[in-house]
Amino acid sequence: MKYHSTNNSSHQVDLKEAILRSLPPDNGLYMPNQLPVLGAEFWNTYRKLSFQEIGFAVANAFFGEDVPADELREIVNGTLEFDAPLIELAPDDHILELFHGPTLAFKDFGARFMARLMAHLTKDEDRMLTVLVATSGDTGGAVASAFHNVPGTRVVILYPKGKVSGLQEKQLTALGGNITALEIEGSFDDCQALVKQAFLDRELSERMNLTSANSINLSRLVPQSFYYIHSARQLPEGVKPVFVIPSGNFGNLTAGLLAKQLGLPVAHFLAATNRNDVVPEYLKKGEYHPRPSVATISNAMDVGAPSNFVRMQALFGNSWENMRQHISGMSFSDNETRVAIREVKSLFNYQIDPHGAVGWLAARAYRANHPGAMTITLETAHPAKFPDVMDAELGKSSVAIPARLAILADQPKVSTALTKDWQTFRAWLTANID
Ligand SMILES: *Cc1c(COP(=O)(O)O)cnc(C)c1O
Asked: What's the farthest any 2 CA atoms get from each other in the chain?
């Protein structure tokens, strides 16, 4: 399969380049030249397949031309070492729990698949692959965990000093081995600027075999479509779900669109956001105005210029009318989100995190206007990741911390403090990584 840039369909690359380069040089995003469709033999039996078998069928539709089947199966099985349970709050109100991976957020699916695919694509090279990633919190943890102990790879994570939570910091700094954490005196934007600069430095970038692991990498999207199919088939036969996706960069929603493209029957998609409502506004008015993000309690969705928006547009032939037939947008305030966390607890005795709560609000509003709608709301992170909000709404220590998170609290933090100066960073890389 060949891949092209959304900015220029004649810029074509193979799988290895699309994955290791992550971003085309023209700043578009990579898309497969043909969007795969799964055939009748899959859709006739998919309700009986295991999660891993569904994952393999999807991965094979995208990557089967380039990756031998047995290796692809191993990549999928290594990714899906945990489940994504569908919880019924009410017969028309479902929650898809995507937080059963090692770092308690859905990003584990994409990061684990990407790590394994990258290791496969570079296995015949004798050079180490160096993954350089800037994080404001969750992504870095998922990427670090996914690449930890993957042979032939190492990860350098840049995070802003004092701006990630204590447990998030431990997820970045306590693993050791092939994971190195740099604590940058500056903001997330400063970290991202350093990473960008490193990629622009061709000599450095080639010598160190640098790759990025950000959320626009195609190999992070494909595995996220596995759980749309896995969850939909748990509904009664013949029922088409309305998927509700708490969104920031819109990778998760784009993965849902890929699942539909593969042939999954879907009634509708709901893009649920916090006050960062650039996409809901576009869906309503047809005008797209990216702007700086504002801080909210669902902070993983604080995105003002969603990076996957151009992929969504490409999937709908750049037509607003077309997109809004399949996706509706809704946004909610922090106050509404807090009330929803309490309501979900008191109505269903279920602890929903601030991101899932935004989705649940959208699902409820949609069902009120669409009788018979069956919603599946993606619960994107475990509530224990947001102790301040959960304690404030449900009472102190109301959410039990899963062992895999709690264990990190006692691990020592190992990181290197650096200023945000490019030359300092470059010198550190040259001295410490080669
Ligand atoms: C990253 C993230 C989101 C947003 O997902 P996108 O794919 O960027 O839209 C939502 N919730 C949580 C908990 C996240 O970590």
From this structure: 63
Q: What is the pTM of this model?
A: 0.94
Q: Which two tokens stand for residue 34?
A: 């043909």
Residue 300 inside a domain? The answer is yes
Question: Which one-letter DSSP state was computed for residue 420?
Answer: S
- pLDDT tens readout for residues 383-416: 999 999 999 999 998 999 899 888 888 889 999 9
Q: How far is the CA of 299 from the centre of ligand 1 (A)?
A: 9
- Which residues does a 6 A CB cutoff place in the pocket of ligand 1? 105, 107, 138, 215, 246-252, 300-301, 355, 380-381
To test ligand 1's pocket by mutation, which of 355, 358, 377 has the most ligand atoms within 8 angstroms of CB?
355
314 band by pLDDT with thresholds 50, 70 and 90: very high
Catalytic-labelled residue, pool 2, 16, 48, 107: 107
Tell me whether residue 209 is in a domain. Answer: no
* 308 Cα–ligand 1 center, Å: 12
User: DSSP labels for 81-150?
Assistant: SS---EEEEETTEEEEE---STTSBTHHHHHHHHHHHHHHHTTT-SSPEEEEEE-SSHHHHHHHHHHTT-
Give Cα separations from 198 to 22, 25, 178, 195 (angstroms).
14, 14, 19, 5
Dihedral sign for Cα 408, 414, 419, 423, please: negative
User: Do the domain assignments include residue 280?
Assistant: yes
pLDDT digits 0-9 by tens, 258-312:
999 999 999 999 999 999 999 999 999 999 999 988 999 999 899 898 989 999 9
- The two counts, helices (H) then strands (E), for the chain are 20, 14
* Domain contains 229: yes
Q: What token pair was written down for 38?
A: 């799964």
Residue 54, amino acid: I
pLDDT tens digits, one per residue of 413-423: 999 999 999 99
* Domain count for the chain: 1
Compute, in angstroms, the gap from residue 303 CA to the centroid of ligand 1: 10
Q: What is the pLDDT of residues 47-83, one digit of tens each?
A: 999 999 999 999 999 999 999 999 999 999 999 999 9
What's the confidence (pLDDT) of residue 89? Answer: 98
Q: How many residues does the chain have?
A: 434
Domain containing 90 equals 80-105+220-400
State the number of CA atoms in the 13 A half-sphere of 284 facing the CB.
Answer: 10
The preferred substitution site among 100, 106, 390, 405 for testing ligand 1, maximizing ligand atoms within 8 Å of CB, is: 106
107 is catalytic: yes
Q: Residue 335: which CATH number?
A: 3.40.50.1100
